[in-house]
Design goal:
- This protein is 75% helix and 0% strand.
- By secondary structure, the protein is mostly helical.
- This is ABC transporter permease subunit.
């Protein structure tokens, strides 16, 4: 269809292509489940089924005329930089949230009032729209940067990565704290009492009983938070933090579907990869006696 056309000519996929892609995704899910239920179609199995076929299609050159791939080829350096920036934002927010949620969860384990306050705060933050939270953080951070120049020199200000990372981290407190507290309570009370009777202190109980037995729930909370961080990092572009969201919103502003997909598809792929990686880690790190 493009024979004799300009080298800039491209083909945009129609509705039939997307319906076919959806059918292939469903087929991939069925193949990933194997003879089991669809619930057994883990992200790791799905990627193992889908990625080789997709890589073969791209390597064969059959998809080269597609407008999406031409857009990706023209914006290669920009796309790679945006992907790296997106991953850094998500990882930074997850690290900050874990640095707050883990010690607070340990303190709240034996303090019901602190646990109630922590979970109330974490649940309340989920109600606040992310764009509104980013906006609320801009003025205080700008004021702090004006008062202390070292903060401004470190890149902390009203716009940029600082409000984005702090805002995303606020939303990650709930899955991290809930998973941490659930994991710490996996050890049966009679087992804890027996350990205390043998002279084990709370630190030893935490290390040898609570963490090994609750590792599955803890990693489950981390898995939810990590995927949530990748998705929320898309909105970081609204406060000048960059990432793949910048490409998405640029495409929305130009009514360019190819540009929107160029930003959205890597976010979806990154989310699937993070979920698959943490799911595999969850299965490997859990004690053999606690695996389903």
């Amino acid at each position: 269809a493009l024979e004799g056309a300009s080298r800039l000519a491209r083909v945009a996929p129609g509705a039939g292509v997307w319906f076919s892609a959806l059918a292939l995704l469903l087929a991939g899910g069925c193949c990933a489940a194997g003879r089991g239920r669809m619930a057994d179609a883990t992200p790791t199995r799905f990627l193992a089924v889908a990625l080789p076929g997709l890589a073969l299609l791209v390597a064969s050159g059959l998809l080269d005329p597609l407008s999406l791939l031409k857009e990706a080829a023209q914006r290669g350096p920009e796309l790679r930089l945006a992907l790296l920036r997106h991953a850094v934002l998500a990882a930074g927010a997850l690290t900050l949230a874990a640095a707050v949620a883990v010690p607070l969860s340990l303190l709240a384990l034996r303090r019901p009032r602190l646990e109630a306050a922590l979970m109330t705060l974490a649940n309340g933050l989920q109600v606040v729209p992310s764009i509104a939270l980013f906006g609320l953080l801009m003025a205080p951070l700008a004021g702090l940067a004006a008062m202390w120049p070292p903060l401004r020199a470190a890149g902390i200000g009203g716009i940029g990565a600082a409000p984005a990372v702090i805002g995303i981290a606020a939303y990650l407190l709930l899955p991290l704290a809930a998973g941490m507290l659930a994991g710490l309570r996996q050890a049966p009370p009679e087992l804890i009492d027996a350990a205390r009777g043998q002279g084990m202190n709370e630190r030893a109980i935490l290390r040898h009983l609570r963490v090994p037995l609750g590792l599955g729930a803890m990693l489950g909370g981390l898995r939810v938070a990590a995927v949530q961080a990748v998705g929320l990092a898309t909105l970081a572009a609204l406060v000048g933090a960059g990432g793949l969201g910048a490409i998405v919103f640029q495409g929305i502003g130009q009514l360019a579907a190819d540009l929107i997909l160029l930003g959205v598809l890597p976010v979806v792929a990154l989310s699937l990869c993070v979920d698959a990686l943490l799911a595999a880690a969850q299965r490997l790190l859990m004690p053999p006696g606690t695996r389903a």
